[in-house]
Amino acid sequence: MDAFHSLFTDEADFADDLFTLSTVIDRQVEDRVGLAEFVSQVAGRLRRGVSLHAFGRVIRCAPDGRLLTGAPGAGPGRRTGLDVDIRIDPPLAEQAARLVDQRLTHAARVLLHHEPMPEEERGFAEKLRWLLSAIATGEERRAIRREIGWDDQSRVTVLAVSGVGDNQGGAERLAASMSPSPVVMAYVGEVLAVVVAGRPRLELDVSEGMSVGVGEEVPASELHTSWRSALTALRYAMPSRRNRGPYRLFDAVIVDVANVGALRVLADVAGQSDVSELADVRGLAALAGGDLPNMLTVLEAVAATESIRQAAQLVHMHHNTVAQRVRDAEAALGYPLTEPYGRTRLMVGLILYRLSAEA
């Protein structure tokens, strides 16, 4: 490896370096190497430390490709709760990081589909994570479902709970309140995945700082699709500001993917491109970091209602104060907010901001 030059250190060589790394990745996928070998080869070729998190598994390699056995995991990255997270240390430049991350994540997912479940990782939580990942073979999935007690006619819903932090007891009480029947749960990174029979109760008390995304009801064999939709719903959720419900739709503490509807496409857009570079999103980020408190909360109320007075009632502020905030925001964003088109544009901009790394 000493004969290799370090990749992505010179912008002039960016295209060549990407081709070189892609060749290494493609060869490993074709050979169906194990994940540890994959991470080792990538780390050695990048000459950087590489960490792979995949449903509870952590593989870390030093810049020379050595496997760091027994080393602590790097923890979930910016895509907390997804099935695969790859982190590079020191990080690459922004453009390189985006493209390399996409290539590595896709390759890791392909290799995961072809790697058998390790015996040492067959504990109950790991088995549930395996089902959520859609990686296990059909027979493995059937065996795990039978062990949990689900047959082919069982219908389930997956919920994703974030913001747990040190309040695991509160999260588990929340999970238990979702259904009169026993629930099944496991942590995927920092997100708690909760599986309930049928549809869950949604009149819940959510501890301060937590939020809940509710997936689709599906056959137990399609558990992974409900999990992915729960994660999508979670991206639209906001941390609870009080420990007791009920919560308004406007609070977005508990978000059902069924209510997200066609707006789900915005989560896909935000996941595939850097929406923080859009002018509307940059403008909202500047307003969020400005001197006026609760500016985005006010703008969300304006986008969700038909008049300044209704928005003021929603956020418990005087309508003159809200009107002034709107004028300030219009000057910063460059378009009228209270006209129908402006309200729609504002709502889309707010959603993309909430989905962006800036939020």
From TrEMBL:
Residues 297-351 form the PucR C-terminal helix-turn-helix domain. InterPro entries: CdaR-like_regulators, PucR_C-HTH_dom, PucR_C-HTH_sf, WH_DNA-bd_sf. Signal peptide: none annotated. This is PucR C-terminal helix-turn-helix domain-containing protein.
